[in-house]
């Protein structure tokens, strides 16, 4: 189901209320009887779709339009974010099966694949380790299409976005390096193989941002939201954690959505050299009420047949 549009009258009212409140969003939101997050979302919509001018001090807060940034309006509902699936031929991971199950049961307003759905081991810039066995790229692509089709069937007619990850980028980087003359031909872009997914660098949901990576290191979720000034969901590090930050602007969240792949899967066997991995197989559930993000929740794989969520063990 597509997000409900905001009436033009509401957008104009939002801008007028903030102007009368001298740029104070919280005061304007109280006057309108809506959440501050909802008002901020309407202000951005008004600026983008109607060309209405925001107060100068407020306007400096908002990032400008960026190529391949997808904007989603979700006043109420759930968005599912899965990251780092690294799909390889073989049996689907428990986290992937749970993701499909949750797509059916939670009826999300949107589904986001947050990077590295493709592993692309054979076109990596890194040399192979000995004679490790890696699947052919065509087999990886077919597996990726099969797994994403399972998500498509389960989620129905909702918006689906694929934020590009560094492993996903290997597909086009290799072609652009060795065969630049094939640019713009159908099939050389990853998006050509998954037409039902909208390609993006980032997905903005109301006042929150979902992208594959930003800061690095074990404190990345904390630093991501600290530096972005917004709630931010990333992947890349496979760590599956939620870290709130509260300051004078309120509370926002830094989230690592975890890893849809099995963290002990063959994708990671050789290059991790049997080292302990502070990784968790998981995905993220984002819930919005009146445009505001509630504390994000993680669905964590426990074993080959079960995940845990909201105090329950669920068979998948």
Low-confidence stretches: none
- Count of helix runs: 8
CATH superfamily of the largest domain: Metallo-dependent phosphatases
- Tell me about the biggest sheet? 9 strands, mixed
Query: How would you describe the shape?
Result: globular
Description:
Strands 2, 3, 4, 5, 11, 12, 13, 14 and 15 form a 9-stranded mixed sheet that branches. A 6-stranded mixed sheet has the order 1-6-7-8-10-9, with helices on one face. Helix 1 crosses helix 3 and helix 2 (25-32) packs across helix 3. The protein has 2 domains: 8-59, no CATH class; 69-315, Metallo-dependent phosphatases (Purple Acid Phosphatase, chain A, domain 2). The chain has helices at 8-20, 25-32, 36-50, 56-59, 94-106, 137-155, 169-178, 220-228; strands spanning 69-72, 77-82, 110-113, 159-163, 198-200, 202-205, 208-211, 232-234, 241-247, 250-256, 282-289, 292-293, 297-301, 306-309, 312-315. It is α/β, with parallel strands linked by helices and 316 residues long.
Q: What keyword list fits this structure?
A:
316 residues; 2 domains; six-stranded mixed β-sheet; nine-stranded mixed β-sheet; 15 strands; alpha/beta; Purple Acid Phosphatase, chain A, domain 2; 8 helices; globular
